[in-house]
Structures are given as structure tokens and as C-alpha cells.
Amino acid sequence: MTRLIHPPAQPVVFEPEFVQGVRQIFEEKIVFNRVLGLRVTDIAAERVRGHISMRPELVGHFAYNRIHGGVISAALDAMGGLAVMAAIGARHLDEPPLQRLQRFAKLGTIDLRIDYLRPGIGEAFDLEAEVLRLGSRVASTRMAFLGTDGKLLASGAAAYIVS
Fold first, then answer.
1. What is the pTM of this model?
2. CA-to-CA distance for 125 and 145, rounded, in angstroms?
3. Mean pLDDT of 14-24
4. pLDDT digits over 80-122, tens only?
5. 3 vs 62, 76, 141, CA distance in Å?
6. pLDDT-derived band of residue 2, with 50, 70 and 90 as boundaries?
7. What sign results for the dihedral spanned by CA atoms 6, 92, 51, 61?
8. In what residue span(s) does the Thioesterase domain sit (predicted)?
């Protein structure tokens, strides 16, 4: 992804408690993410990364070897939300980790656009997301759905309510 925002002057280092809490919310408590098998591979203030492995329940109805477009859309939406969670966590480093984690309760998607560029054929896929702007009420993100060879299969842009 080409960077549209500048990284912070000092890299933000999240506490293990915060990272563990974000992973638990994202991978376990959000049931749909658990069904998708979506896993967090990297959490940073400026970018998040994830991974999804192909499973029979993720394929399209008529395309037995392709990941379903709805799965791609849902995974990109989830990653955009994760990027917002990381950005909010970085913005409020003065708060204890558990207090920052509670800020995510009101996070919700208000707009989502997905561009499908290539068929989602493969055994596994990587995802990336970054926040373009984090305002006091709305955050804008950009996401990518990649084959393990690095080819861009789908891209997304979304807005999330953060108040």
C-alpha cells in the first residue's frame, strides 16, 4: 500500500495487555470473525495486518475453488475496524489499556466500498488496513486483500463511527 499518512515521529509501542485484549475482541468475541478464521498478524498504530486461510465454508456457491466475495468484503470491513481500534488505542495512550479497549464498544461501519480486482483463488490470504483520518466522530480507512504471493485481489475503503 502507498502511504497516505505519515507515521508518528515516535513509534507507538502498545502494551502486551492492550494487544492481547484487541486480539481477544477481534478474533474471539466478534463471532463472525471467528467463523471466518480471521487472525491478527500485526497491530501497529499506523497499520494492521491479518490472515485468513481457505476453508470449505468460505467458498462461493458456484465457484468451488474461490473465496466468496462476501467473505472478502466482511474480512476487509473487519480489518478496517481493527485499524481504527489501533489508531484509537494510540491516540489515548494516557489511559490504561482496559479503558482504551472499552472505547471500541461504539465502533461501527457507516460506509464501505469494495473493489474486486482478481478472483480470490488460493489456500490463504493476507489483509492490510490503515487509517487515513481519525476524527472525533468518524474515521476513514483503506484496506487490501492480498494473495500470499502479494497480488492485490481486492481493495476497500470505509468510514467508521467512533463516538
1. 0.87
2. 7
3. 94
4. 999 999 999 999 999 999 999 988 888 999 999 999 999 988 8
5. 37, 18, 12
6. very low
7. negative
8. 65-150
d(CA 51, CA 123): 11
- Give the model's pLDDT for residue 64: 58
How far apart, in whole angstroms, are the C-alpha atoms of residue 161 and residue 58?
A: 28
Residue pair 15/89 in contact (Cβ under 8 Å)? The answer is no
How many other C-beta atoms can be found within 10 angstroms of the C-beta atom of residue 163?
9
The class of domain 16-161 in CATH terms is alpha beta
Residues near 137 by beta carbon (within 8 Å), at least 6 away in sequence: 161, 162, 163
Q: How many CB atoms lie within 10 A of CB 14?
A: 19
Judged on CB neighbours under 10 Å (0-12, 13-18, 19+), 138 is middle
Residue 134: strand, helix, or coil: strand
Residue ranges of domains in the chain: 16-161
Side chain identity, residue 90: A
Q: Which position has the higher pLDDT, 128 or 101?
A: 128
| Grid cell of 16 as nine digits | 502486551
Q: What is the mean pLDDT of the chain?
A: 88
